[in-house]
Amino acid sequence: MNMGADPGGVGAPIIELEGVVKSFGPVSVLKGVDLAAYPGKVTALVGDNGAGKSTLIKGLAGVQPYDDGVVRFDGDPITLHTPRDAARLGIEVVYQDLALCDNLDIVQNMFLGREETGLGTFDEGRMEKEASDTLRSLSVRTVKSVRQKVASLSGGQRQTVAIARAVLKRARVVILDEPTAALGVAQTEQVLHLVQRLAEQGVAVIIISHNLADVFEVADHINVLYLGQMVASLDAKQTTRDDVVGYITGTKTQQGANA
After folding, report:
1. In whole angstroms, what separates CA 117 from the centre of its chain?
2. Model pTM score
3. pLDDT exceeding 90 applies to what percent of the chain?
4. Which of 31, 50, 91, 214 is the most exposed place for a label (fewest CB within 10 A)?
């Protein structure tokens, strides 16, 4: 079963995993996993706790390199030894904790570690304009000022800043780890719209979520991990919540001829 096959003629994947394996001592966590993410598409990764989702993402981020298997970027085999390797290719991960600094404003957070300089000092005007332009390109209207301290922002606004930071870095693949966890209804809608804007810009978006309602609202493809194996790769429009739940819980067996 080739999960990397082009589902429905959407073009070549930006990133593709084939047979990736990861173990920790005697415990095999990923057992030959395939996954593909396409430009302009939202790819969901779902599975129960312990299915291997975090390990799969950490491998893509270069945090915990895979033990075996092939990773391709734009069709070329690559090795992700460190987070720097991933960042250099334009792979950005927005983790659940968002890694934002409460005492800094939005601009400072978006440019943290890559500040623009001019004549030996930070070019505040340029950074402020780029931050504002990036938020505008994502149709973000909920942030009053890019000079607001992050400590004053709501959960949805914080998620917005973290996603916009990835866009500012010219990311080609953005991985979102539970982006709507602990958000209210309105904030969840705000973030899901942002995910869609991201895909419309040609980014390959991978979203990890336990919330299947959110997944079905934004995902083009749904991939299900079960005990370290990718048991299904589904077209979101041609499957149902019950089917996905079946794969997540193991009551449906590994996808066969239609995979």
Report:
1. 29
2. 0.87
3. 68
4. 50
